[in-house]
Amino acid sequence: MKRVTGIGGIFFKAKDAPAMHAWYKKHLGIEVQSWGGAAFSWTDDDGKPVAGTTAWSINAQDNDYFAPSTAPFMINYRVQDLHALIKMLKQEGCHVFDKIDESEYGKFGWVIDPEGNKVELWEPPEGQ
């Protein structure tokens, strides 16, 4: 079974998230949405859309979504079969969260790496 198939998102904290949003918009052209980030749609070499997106988001410093990690970032990895991967990671002795979120956005699970960083695993919905 293939484990990680790509990067689904990059999330990081900022001391002044609104100022960071403005900087990234002005200097790099990233249109930050009301949820605090942007979704980059994938394209082929000719610029034609293909299934898939990568999320990018700046979060407030006091945001606890990355907890229990104290790192100022979290990477979301795309996976093919979240439930099977979570089962394998548990068998391998990894610190895996028991909770799995399932919604119209896909399935989400989490694991802590050896240095205490929270890693988000995402199985996109069918067709993405």
UniProtKB/TrEMBL annotation:
<dbReference type="InterPro" id="IPR041581">
    <property type="entry name" value="Glyoxalase_6"/>
</dbReference>
<feature type="domain" description="VOC">
    <location>
        <begin position="6"/>
        <end position="124"/>
    </location>
</feature>
<dbReference type="InterPro" id="IPR037523">
    <property type="entry name" value="VOC_core"/>
</dbReference>
<dbReference type="InterPro" id="IPR052164">
    <property type="entry name" value="Anthracycline_SecMetBiosynth"/>
</dbReference>
<dbReference type="InterPro" id="IPR029068">
    <property type="entry name" value="Glyas_Bleomycin-R_OHBP_Dase"/>
</dbReference>
<dbReference type="Pfam" id="PF18029">
    <property type="entry name" value="Glyoxalase_6"/>
</dbReference>
<protein>
    <submittedName>
        <fullName>VOC family protein</fullName>
    </submittedName>
</protein>
